[in-house]
C-alpha cells in the first residue's frame, strides 16, 4: 500500500512538473497541440465563439494565465486585451509571436503590399468619382470611404492563415518547449517534423481544391483572410463592414444588395464571430 502511494505521488509530481501550454486563440491552439502531442496538454484561453478584437478577460482567465507554464499569443497587435496581464507574467513563460523577426517581416511585407493596393484602388476610385462629378465645384473628400478594408492601414496579425508564419510559430513553440522540457526534446522535434510534413501536404490539397474557383469573386464579412487569399491567388472583391454602427451597416447592405444583383458572384464567406440580431 505504501509503495503504491509513493508511485502515485511520483506520477502526480511528474504531471505537475509538465508544462501546460495555453494559447490565446484556437488557431494557435491547433499549432501548439500538434507540437505538444504526447508531451503535455494544450489549452485555449478564448472560447471558440469569442473574438480577440473585443474580448474581456474574466477572473478565471487570469488564473489560467498565471498557472500555465507557457503562454502563446500573437501580441497586442491582435489581442490587446491580454497586454496588461501578459506584462505581469515572467518573460520566460511567454511566447509573443509578433516579436519573432521572421514573422514580423511577413506581416510588414503584407502591410506594404496592402497599402500599395489600397492606394491604387483609392486613386482609381477618385478618378472615377471625379469623372462623374465634374459638374460640382471643388472636391468632396468626405465621400471617400477609407475603411472599406478593416486593416487597410494597419498590420494584419491573422498570421495563422499564412503557412509560412504558421510554420515559424510551430518552430518557436517547439524551441521554447525543448528548453522547458529537455527530456522530451526528441518527441518535440518529431512532432515538429510531422507538423511541417502535414502542412506541406495540406497546402497542396487546398491549392488543388481551390484551383477551379480561383477566378470566382467572393465577399467576406471580416477583413482577415489576406494571407490565405494571396497564397492561393483568390479573388476577394470586397469586405462588408457589418460590425460597424447599425445605420452604416444598413446603408452598406442596401448598396451591397444592388451590387450583388448586378454581378454573377455568389460566394460569401461569413465570420462565425458575428452575432446574429
From TrEMBL:
<dbReference type="Pfam" id="PF01297">
    <property type="entry name" value="ZnuA"/>
</dbReference>
<dbReference type="GO" id="GO:0006829">
    <property type="term" value="P:zinc ion transport"/>
</dbReference>
<keyword id="KW-0406">Ion transport</keyword>
<keyword id="KW-0813">Transport</keyword>
<keyword id="KW-0862">Zinc</keyword>
<feature type="region of interest" description="Disordered">
    <location>
        <begin position="255"/>
        <end position="277"/>
    </location>
</feature>
<comment type="similarity">
    <text>Belongs to the bacterial solute-binding protein 9 family.</text>
</comment>
<feature type="compositionally biased region" description="Basic and acidic residues">
    <location>
        <begin position="135"/>
        <end position="145"/>
    </location>
</feature>
<feature type="region of interest" description="Disordered">
    <location>
        <begin position="111"/>
        <end position="154"/>
    </location>
</feature>
<feature type="compositionally biased region" description="Basic and acidic residues">
    <location>
        <begin position="111"/>
        <end position="122"/>
    </location>
</feature>
<feature type="compositionally biased region" description="Basic residues">
    <location>
        <begin position="123"/>
        <end position="134"/>
    </location>
</feature>
<feature type="compositionally biased region" description="Basic residues">
    <location>
        <begin position="255"/>
        <end position="265"/>
    </location>
</feature>
<dbReference type="InterPro" id="IPR050492">
    <property type="entry name" value="Bact_metal-bind_prot9"/>
</dbReference>
<dbReference type="InterPro" id="IPR006127">
    <property type="entry name" value="ZnuA-like"/>
</dbReference>
<keyword id="KW-0732">Signal</keyword>
<keyword id="KW-0864">Zinc transport</keyword>
<dbReference type="GO" id="GO:0046872">
    <property type="term" value="F:metal ion binding"/>
</dbReference>
<protein>
    <recommendedName>
        <fullName>High-affinity zinc uptake system protein ZnuA</fullName>
    </recommendedName>
</protein>
<feature type="signal peptide">
    <location>
        <begin position="1"/>
        <end position="19"/>
    </location>
</feature>
Amino acid at each position: 500500500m505504501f509503495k503504491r502511494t509513493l508511485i502515485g505521488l511520483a506520477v502526480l509530481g511528474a504531471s505537475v512538473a509538465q508544462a501546460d501550454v495555453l494559447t490565446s486563440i484556437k488557431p494557435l491552439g491547433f499549432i501548439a497541440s500538434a507540437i505538444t502531442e504526447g508531451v503535455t496538454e494544450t489549452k485555449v484561453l478564448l472560447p471558440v465563439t469569442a473574438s480577440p478584437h473585443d474580448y474581456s478577460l474574466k477572473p478565471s482567465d487570469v488564473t489560467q494565465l498565471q498557472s500555465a507554464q507557457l503562454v502563446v499569443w500573437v501580441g497586442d497587435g491582435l489581442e490587446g486585451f491580454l497586454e496588461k496581464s501578459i506584462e505581469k507574467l515572467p518573460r520566460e513563460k511567454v511566447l509573443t509571436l509578433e516579436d519573432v523577426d521572421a514573422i514580423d517581416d511577413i506581416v510588414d511585407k503584407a502591410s506594404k503590399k496592402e497599402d500599395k493596393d489600397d492606394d491604387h484602388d483609392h486613386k482609381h476610385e477618385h478618378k472615377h468619382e471625379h469623372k462623374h462629378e465634374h459638374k460640382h465645384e471643388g472636391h468632396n473628400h468626405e465621400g471617400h470611404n477609407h475603411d472599406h478594408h478593416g486593416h487597410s492601414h494597419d498590420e494584419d496579425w491573422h498570421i495563422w492563415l499564412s503557412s509560412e508564419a504558421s510554420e515559424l510559430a510551430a518552430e518557436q513553440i517547439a524551441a521554447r518547449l525543448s528548453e522547458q522540457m529537455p527530456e522530451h526534446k526528441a518527441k518535440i522535434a518529431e512532432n515538429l517534423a510531422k507538423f511541417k510534413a502535414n502542412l506541406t501536404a495540406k497546402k497542396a490539397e487546398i491549392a488543388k481544391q481551390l484551383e477551379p474557383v480561383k477566378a470566382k469573386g467572393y465577399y467576406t464579412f471580416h477583413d482577415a483572410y489576406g494571407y490565405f487569399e494571396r497564397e492561393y491567388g483568390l479573388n476577394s472583391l470586397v469586405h462588408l463592414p457589418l460590425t460597424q454602427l447599425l445605420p452604416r451597416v444598413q446603408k452598406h447592405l442596401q448598396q451591397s444588395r444592388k451590387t450583388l444583383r448586378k454581378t454573377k458572384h455568389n460566394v460569401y464567406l461569413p465570420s462565425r464571430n458575428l452575432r446574429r440580431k
